[in-house]
Batch of 3 targets.
Target 1
Amino acid sequence: MGIRRTLKDIFKAIYKSIPLIRTWNWSRLFLCIIISCFIWSFQALNKDNYHSTINFPLVINYERQDVVALEEPPKFISVQVSGSGWRLLQKTLGFGITPLQIEIEDPTQVKYFTAKSLMPDIVQQLSDVRVDFIAEDSIHLNYDSTISKQVLLFIDSSKIPLAKNHRIASHIFLDPDSLTISGAASFVRAEPDSFEIFLNENTLDENYDEMIDISYEPPRKVSFYPQGVQVKFDVDLYFKKTITVPVKPLNFPQDSSAYLARQLAVVEYDVRRTNEMLTIPDSLSILADYKNRNMNDSTIEPTFQPPSFMENVKIIPEKLILIFPKKLSDKRKNRYRSE
């Protein structure tokens, strides 16, 4: 009850004083407060033996140009200093501080250096204050050499979407046929030696000649060029055809002790629409060389040299059967004798 009564009296007093507060000159009041703060600040800054931490700027310089920083080197180190308030305020705002230049011949060979080694140069620059200590124990560096590497570009023809009965009818040309990647040696060496190009097409039924953006995503600290590749190849409609071709025997016995069971064979092949009307040579034949016979099953595997416009050639039958009349007659004689 006592606490409630006290709070109630305080609120009543505040409420009664509101009319009086409204009559105050607030602009003068704020001006007085600001002037008082300035006076207090000036008096405080004139005092000595303050402590503060300032960020002292660093610049790493090196002679080698073929290097890259895998991690950016520190641009500041934390230095604990003491002195008058004015001096520390100036240093905190960066007045009178020149970045410390650190010269390194080959940064790839230097992994770190101690902050203590920087103390003489920092003390010389901050001669108007006392340098107590440097917060960091050491400054770490992570640099790597830069190299370039060629990455072969390729297209998997089996992944190219083609319309029904259409095929790629030429070599796939890529210009350029490789990427040049450059950057940190450790990352460049880890990259694969080839990169696959994909076509953003639904189905193709005509010749293709387009510039494609290369979707290669290099690791950090690595760049590549060019950004695109020209892809060009022919696409044509193919038809399946069959013809009957005579079989030409080679090196067969003169005494007719062996001959072929058939003198004709069927050649099945595919032909491009642009080559459909080309004439088949009359001299076209299938060769059956007796020297290449297989005595286990009495067959010969035929050979055929088709014209260049024939593709996916298939000979039917795949093997030609040999007939040996003398052996047949011997078998018959033996059968008759047994009877």
Target 2
Amino acid sequence: MTDLRIGGVPPVHGSRLVGFIRYLERCARTDAILPGTLFLVADDGSPERHPCHGGRTRFEAFDGRVLVLVHLDGPALDRRFKILLEKLHGTRGIVQERRRRTRRMQALLEERGRLLVRLEEDATARVAAERERDKVLTRLYRAGQDERRRLARDLHDHAGQHLVAMTFGLRRLTSHLTGAEALGEVDRLLGQARDIGMALRRVSLELRPAALDEFGFVTALRYLVQEWSRVTAFATEFQVVGQEVPLSTEVAVTLYRLSQEALSNVAKHAGNPSAVSVVLLFGASHLTLTVDDNGGGFDADATSPLALVAEGKLGLIGMRERMSLVGGSLELESMPGHGATVMARVHLAGDGSVDA
């Protein structure tokens, strides 16, 4: 290639000289670096293409005149620029892909926010529905207890009185009979009347324990424990701790029925316990009823609702449901060979704190 020198004109190939001079004039009129192309004459006389970059500058050594500098890129530098350009395009693609992913992530976050709002609305609606369900169940429970009380009173006041009148009538009839056969028939009728009376009393007690209305919860529970101990011959202790406070009808009936169920389970499943205790603890804000025995025990971990339903053991489920209807809770503690404890806890009128 012909040598180049400062201030000289490159040996531009043929007719391209006019275009090159026009390129130099553009470079002289702008501060930007402009790309271009030179076709120089090689040593063998053939045209050789060279990418270039031109720009204007001022050198004090040339009296501050405006000069145009043209930078020629060799083939190796040209390849390097191509590599850098490819990297630039690759980086641009990565940036664009990152932007697309950012937009997708933003859309996912917005969808997640909408889902969380819907889930919160669903949770709020579910809580409201559960509260309404509990209110309805509580009203049904109270209505059921009222109906039980009415039926028990009707059986006692009406059917019981008619049965007593019939019994006295049969006894008066006996004094007017002389035949052995007639007397035997009257005795048979009197026996049936006694059986009917016992059945009526049993049904009345199942519907509504009369002792609750007549003597109050603590006295009725004490009588229940004493009678159960007499029938089963199990040594049973009954204790009342704390200052007794009046209970609502629903709470009193629920705890009484729960005690019946718990003692019945002791008789059925505890084997032959040497000690059974029933303790009422009146705290500042809660009443705790504990039924404890030292019998055979069971695996308390296997008393989940699903396990109990699968095994057909609905008694414990019924106990939990009755306690929940009066705002209470039921806990079971037991291990095989180490007895069992049934603990029912219900809130009393107060500040709602929990006793230690």
Target 3
Amino acid sequence: MDIDVGALGKVAVLMGGRSAEREVSLMSGGGVLAALRARGVDAHAFDPAERDLSALKAEGFARCFIALHGRYGEDGTVQGALELLDIPYTGPGVMASSIAMDKIMTKRIWRFEGLPTPDWRLVASAEETSQALAVLGAPMIVKPAREGSTIGLTKVMSVEECAQAYALASQYDPEVLCEQFIDGDETTCPVLEGAGQVQAGRAQALPVIRIVAPEGNYDYQNKYFTDTTQYHCPSGLPQAEEHEIQRLVEKAFRTLGCRGWARADIMIRASDRQPFLLEINTSPGMTSHSLVPMAARASGISYEDLCLRILASAALDGGAGRP
């Protein structure tokens, strides 16, 4: 994939921001910034929590690499601002970002399209959380509807834990999702437009990563700050299972109208090996522990080239924007 670095212009790497994932975003953005500079890109750090986005236009930035995570970063808000500024950006557009950030809306669309996702209930109180447990059974996952990185998530085993789980999740979002727990292999699979030998603009799933966390607890700490979680890529799954997950992820990506890149999380139920889509991340992590770079390496794509490919795919909803 030949990319004219000079044609990319002055690039802002958006990092930090105001979400609960600010710390991780700064790590992601720092890695992306260094990678782009190593490839000769005129790249600069830009923290929307510290500077007004209007400065992007005033200072002549030609495109943005969005390394923001969570609220105000991958929920369609910054994407909408960049649309108004006429500055192309990486990742899905306004609508796709907004839908994907909302786990409930995502699941509704996937269910309508016939894609497998765990059963769920939307709750507004501790009492409704207990009622959801009676329907969904234990264990049950309780989490904010619009957060990432397992922030505010609890694995509930009994009715006595419902009130505390709801209280934690509702600290981050008034909409709380109760989700059926799928017991089995935890996997994730990135999607990248123009990956491998496929033509630009066509989304293709990268290799599947199988995740083995301590005691099955793949939480915020084990995602980003420990080295005890095991990541298997190649996944070690049967080839037919790997291909089915990739097929599902590509369809999930297209169904939500995504573009550029994303990463979907999938559980494989142990009892019958049925895969279930959990969620899709439209601005995945790019830290040293992150999974998109890991899958890209397995495809022969270096971290620096991955960042360059993602940047080159920057666009606006109405078209590609300025070259």
